[in-house]
From TrEMBL:
Residues 189-306 form the RapZ C-terminal domain. SUPFAM superfamilies: P-loop containing nucleoside triphosphate hydrolases. It holds the Pfam family RapZ-like_N. This is RNase adapter RapZ. The keyword ATP-binding applies. The keyword Repeat does not apply. It comes from the Bacteria. ATP binds at residues 33-40. Residues 27-182 form the RapZ-like N-terminal domain. It comes from Streptomyces corynorhini. HAMAP family: RapZ_like.
Length: 309
């Protein structure tokens, strides 16, 4: 059968084939972070979600893995690579590999697993294994060396998850919340209330302080309740400056969200604090989360310290 000038009866024009090849480039997630912080659990979660997972791949081979995935005719659409200090001989190549991926317009994200020194020490001691970087020193020496090595990568991460107080199931839940959906929104936000007396969340991108508002803790009839209670929320937002703060801070977040989208950042954690993480920060977090959601940002609101006292 003859063909017309468009090649409609053939296998497709070069342009069409080129577009198909470009569309076949896999989505990439790089999982890294502190040894003992849960990298294997995070990788297993993505594997269960249908991702092709490669553990401890030398960074220099990441672009090659993406190219192989692109040749799979769509069979390998999502790749997750675990990069850690076990491959420290190759770690210097990571920056070059990331630049190569960016030049090829590969959609890639970095997930960094963080944890406190105390939590990491407990985990290594519980399994009676040395830290991969401790050498002849102590576990804390290895942790410090690893943290220094990964500092720049942590700064470049799209998503930082602090696993200090998370069990395996809670970490899987966080990963599911970020990666289980079929549709990939432009920006996902976590709004987290917390209590300053329990420490700052180390995985927060932005931190805001609500302690300028009167504390419902000192109102006897409100003390037993939380910021999820209507009476407490009404009390908080009837205080001078509360509504103005909500309006102006959400306007600022909208400006920041626009910049994050422009820079390709897909995740942001906003931490809202008060003294105990029970009243003011909870009420404010709920309102901020609702405002962000109304602006088209997929938002999850969590209350880190609620019920802790």
């Amino acid at each position: 059968m003859s063909t017309d000038s468009t090649g409609a009866s053939g296998s497709g024009t070069p342009k069409e084939n080129g577009e198909a090849t470009e569309a076949a480039i896999p989505e990439l997630v790089i999982i890294s972070g502190m040894s003992g912080a849960g990298r294997s659990t995070a990788a297993k979660c993505l594997e269960d979600l249908g991702w092709f997972v490669v553990d401890n791949l030398p960074p220099a081979l990441i672009p090659t893995m993406v190219e192989l995935g692109a040749r799979s005719q769509g069979n390998v659409a999502r790749i997750a690579v675990v990069v850690d200090v076990r491959g420290r001989r190759f770690f210097d190549n990571l920056r070059e590999s990331l630049a190569d991926l960016d030049a090829k317009q590969v959609t890639r994200r970095i997930v960094f697993l963080e944890s406190s020194e105390d939590a990491l020490v407990r985990r290594f001691e519980s399994v009676r294994r040395p830290h991969p970087l401790q050498g002849d020193g102590r576990i804390v020496d290895g942790i410090e060396a690893e943290r220094d090595l990964l500092r720049e990568l942590r700064g470049d991460a799209d998503l930082v998850i602090d696993t200090s107080d998370l069990n395996v199931h809670e970490l899987r839940s966080k990963m599911d919340a970020q990666f289980a959906g079929d549709e990939k929104p432009e920006l996902r936000a976590t709004v987290m209330s917390f209590g300053y007396k329990y420490g700052l969340p180390v995985d927060a991108d932005l931190v805001v302080d609500c302690r300028f508002l009167p504390n419902p803790h000192w109102v006897p009839e409100l003390r037993p309740f939380t910021g999820l209670n209507d009476e407490v929320a009404t009390y908080v937002f009837n205080q001078p400056g509360a509504k103005e703060f909500l309006d102006r801070y959400t306007e600022l977040l909208q400006l920041i969200a626009t910049g994050y989208r422009r820079e390709g950042k897909r995740y942001v954690t906003v931490a809202v604090g008060c003294t105990g993480g029970k009243h003011r920060s909870v009420a404010m977090s709920e309102k901020i989360g609702a405002r962000l959601a109304s602006e088209g940002v997929e938002t999850v609101v969590v209350h880190r310290d609620l019920g802790r006292e």
